[in-house]
Design brief:
22 helices; two-stranded antiparallel sheet; 10 strands; four-stranded mixed β-sheet; about 475 residues; alpha+beta; flat; Arc Repressor Mutant, subunit A
């Protein structure tokens, strides 16, 4: 029984080729390029194919097949990464400077000594992705003392926070929504309407959030029209300043390269995999000759050299084959996604996205779910209607009234349009939205409507009411 158990474990071990393939499948195009360059530097047996070998089928190699009789040795192994580079406009799209990087860059223009700069950097690091500082000043002071070894006070931390709150985007570094909105109003030209909006948020914030408009007009002795103008100024403000970067910010050097290109040809979506700067590889003939020469030699030094070269040849063979398998796996997966979401890829209409999970594509390709997950991770596809991460096409599903499965994204799109078209004087409650969706053929529970509404960052009906 023990022997049988050991045998079972042995058969489940992954081969070097499988391990190599799994690692390469996870890599998006830019990281694959870096990985190939690293392998070229570390393995002298590998070299780039300099001449254009496009169209030549990849050749397999067995180290047992080496012989000196063939003038065109069979050990030459190529991997062809399908197609030439695309035009530059297809190669990349820019990713704007990250939120925290922009704050740190602005800090660089402030005249601070090293100690205060370190404290300010720590404060910036504690600001969340929405742009808020959620820690109280006492706790922040303790953290700075413990982590940086810098003694400070809540007053000094607050003074540096006030400085950061003057950075762009306006509203950054606020400790709550009220402060966030007030900071944005302070940055605006101080018209009468802006000043009124400031006073409403500063003195009547609770009444404003509960939409007790009559109390506000009575206490401020203003007209409904004045209140309406002030509210219009407030609703233009951004409650999540960290969620966007102003157009004036410089673009980063970082580039996202689409791994796939889907184009319409004669009305049908056709996929290709742009090669970009990923080189084709082959085994270096010189080192293979060393191996063949050593095979006929009995000297110890020659055999040691043969062992070294054989190890490098094995590594090169596995690496080239792994790249080839990665290419085939990505190609099969993307084609399966296009086939599954065929109607969507024609015009990019979100309502045509079918419910799709990893299992659906695994069954379609015959690959493991874990493999599909690795393919989908950090990969992008460029279409004629935009660039999308592959994860975008996967979603849960619900059943419509006619029994057909529909995507949650489709329901969210219908929900958003229903709320956009509602009478803002009498906004639809979640129960009424259930009725609207039912009439349109979507069977959704009230709690599901509430969940999707929250995911779309849409407030409840009472808070959507307008004058």
């Amino acid at each position: 029984m023990l022997k049988q158990s050991l045998q079972q474990k042995q058969t489940q071990r992954l081969s070097p080729l499988q391990i190599q393939t799994i690692k390469l499948i996870e890599l998006p195009a830019p990281e694959l390029e870096q990985r190939i360059q690293k392998e070229l530097e570390e393995n002298p047996v590998l070299e780039e194919v300099v001449d254009d070998t496009e169209g030549e089928a990849p050749k397999n190699v067995s180290l047992n097949d080496y012989s000196g009789s063939d003038p065109t040795p069979s050990y030459k192994l190529y991997v062809n990464n399908q197609g030439k580079d695309l035009k530059p406009q297809y190669n990349t799209f820019s990713v704007r400077e990250s939120f925290h990087q922009s704050l740190e860059a602005q800090l660089g223009y402030c005249k601070l000594d090293e100690r205060r700069k370190q404290i300010a950097l720590f404060i910036i690091g504690m600001i969340d992705d929405d742009g808020y500082l959620r820690r109280d000043l006492e706790s922040l002071t303790d953290d700075i003392s413990f982590r940086l070894g810098i003694e400070t006070t809540p007053d000094e931390v607050e003074q540096l926070l006030f400085m950061i709150q003057e950075f762009e985007p306006a509203g950054v570094g606020a400790r709550d929504l009220r402060e966030c909105l007030l900071l944005q109003l302070e940055a605006k030209k101080q018209t009468e309407t802006v000043q009124l909006a400031t006073r409403i948020l500063r003195d009547f914030f609770t009444e404003f959030t509960k939409k007790h408009y009559n109390k506000i007009t009575a206490r401020l002795n203003i007209t409904d029209e004045q209140l309406k103008e002030a509210i219009a100024e407030i609703v233009k403000l951004n409650p999540r300043p960290g969620g966007q970067i102003d157009d004036s910010y410089s673009e980063q050097v970082q580039q996202v390269v689409p791994d796939f290109l889907v184009e319409l040809k004669e009305g049908e979506p056709v996929m290709s995999m742009p090669r970009f700067s990923i080189p084709e590889l082959k085994v270096n003939k010189k080192y293979a000759d060393v191996l063949m020469e050593a095979a006929n030699s009995a000297t110890r030094e020659k055999k040691e050299a043969a062992t070294f070269v054989k190890q490098k040849l094995d590594s090169a063979k596995w690496f080239i084959e792994a790249i080839k398998q990665r290419h085939n796996t990505l190609q099969n997966t993307m084609n399966a996604i296009i086939d599954y979401q065929h109607d969507y890829f024609i015009d990019g209409d979100e309502t045509k996205l079918k419910p799709m999970v990893l299992r659906n594509i695994a069954e379609k390709t015959g690959l493991d779910i874990s493999t599909i997950s690795r393919v989908v991770n950090c990969k992008y596809v460029q279409t004629h209607f935009g660039i999308y991460p592959l994860k975008y096409f996967f979603s849960e599903g619900l059943v419509a009234n006619d029994g057909e499965e529909v995507s949650t994204r489709e329901i969210k799109t219908i929900l958003q349009s229903s709320i956009d078209e509602e009478d803002k004087h009498k906004p639809l409650t979640d129960e009424e939205l259930v009725t609207v969706l039912t009439e349109k053929g979507y069977k959704v529970a009230r709690r599901t409507v509430a969940k999707y509404r929250e995911q779309l960052n849409i407030p409840i009906a009472r808070l959507r009411k307008e004058l």
